[in-house]
Write a structure and sequence with these properties.
Strand content: 5-15%
Helix content: 25-40%
Shape: globular
Number of helices: 12
CATH architecture of the largest domain: 3-Layer(aba) Sandwich
Structural class: alpha/beta
């Protein structure tokens, strides 16, 4: 039948699983699910489509109504794609500390981006989205507690993983969390249908919110009531906001988390760079962080273990971040030496 689609939204999902043979300890089979193969290059394309289609089905989103959401970037980019294709105006609220590439991509796709003060962190951009939705009658996605987010991952991501490992055991599944949708949606399916698979959740080692055991304070509607006391700034954009998302809290409450792993920010950047230079896989910092967590886990596993980690997005939207901090646009001394090694175009 070939690969003809009615529109770009039909290409979301069915991302590949790739073996990382250069990373794993001897005898460990380490795999990665490469979510940058989604059309707008991140795992958040899935939730964007899932939330919008669920809202259309329920009547919560009416034709031509404006959609609004708070995001660190990837969800906003996914929503901008979905809203552009379906014809909904989109307004994004985003803390000004997140990379400029993300806001420019969203605006290029037709969205309006409202920046909130960096000092107010994720809870600030979330509060702004709530205010705008209430004042203007816009549809608020509520990605951090919207069940349609987790449901999309149960229907797609989890089913893909089960199919990819239908001939071998999946011993460990490793993920971080941003909204908690991937965590909750995949973990509950694995627990029910692959009960021997251990669920491993990574957090920044300086902002292990779930690891503290301290509950997130919430308003009656589920919105976080201020920052979690365990939060500290970290470099993993899109990973672990300054509150515990309701969907991630649900996963913890349902005992879907078997292990927690703290990941160092510098190690995350190192792993992302190694993925590029050793495996040819371009990822963001959150993917490097998840891989770092998988490597720490793998060092303690028995020979023959099969481990799958999530790589949430691409590296191109991190050009202005520390990930590319020492990557120059101009030729290095070594590159100049190569240039000078032949006579053409002498300087």
């Amino acid at each position: 039948m070939g690969n003809r689609y009615n529109n770009i939204l039909g290409t979301i999902g069915n991302t590949p699983v790739v073996k990382l043979s250069k990373f794993a300890p001897e005898g460990i089979n380490l795999y990665a699910k490469v979510e940058s193969f989604n059309p707008l290059s991140s795992v958040k394309d899935r939730l964007a489509l899932g939330i919008i289609e669920a809202a259309e089905k329920s009547g919560a989103l009416q034709p031509g109504q404006t959609v609004v959401e708070a995001t660190s970037g990837n969800t906003g980019i996914g929503l901008a794609m979905v809203c552009a294709q379906k014809g909904y105006p989109l307004v994004i609220t985003m803390a000004e500390s997140f990379s400029v590439e993300r806001r420019r991509l969203m605006r290029f796709l037709g969205a309006k981006v409202v920046l909130t003060p960096a000092a107010e962190k994720g809870t600030g951009m979330l509060a702004k989205a709530y205010e705008l939705a209430e004042k203007h009658g816009w549809f608020l996605c509520r990605q951090f507690e919207n069940e349609a987010n987790a449901d999309m991952h149960s229907r797609t991501t989890a089913e893909e993983i089960l199919a990819d490992f239908d001939d071998i055991s999946l011993d460990y599944w490793v993920t971080g969390y941003g909204t908690g949708g991937t965590l909750k949606g995949v973990a509950r399916v694995l627990r029910a249908r692959s009960p021997n698979t251990k669920i491993v959740v990574c957090e920044p080692d300086n902002a292990g919110l779930i690891a503290t055991g301290i509950k997130q304070q919430r308003n009656a509607d589920g919105q976080p009531k201020g920052s979690h006391p365990g939060f500290n700034p970290h470099v993993m954009q899109g990973w672990t906001p300054d509150f515990i998302p309701k969907l991630a809290e649900d996963a913890e409450a349902a005992s879907l988390i078997d292990h927690l792993v703290g990941v160092n920010g510098e190690k995350a950047i190192e792993c992302s760079r190694r993925l590029a230079t050793e495996e040819g896989i371009l990822t963001g910092i959150s993917a490097g962080a998840t891989l770092a967590g998988a490597l720490a886990l793998s060092a303690e596993l028995p020979v023959g273990s099969n481990v799958l980690c999530m790589l949430p997005d691409t590296g191109e939207r991190y050009l202005s971040t520390p990930l590319f901090g020492d990557i120059d646009a101009d030729m290095s001394a070594e590159e100049l030496e190569i240039f000078d090694s032949t006579p053409s175009y002498a300087r």
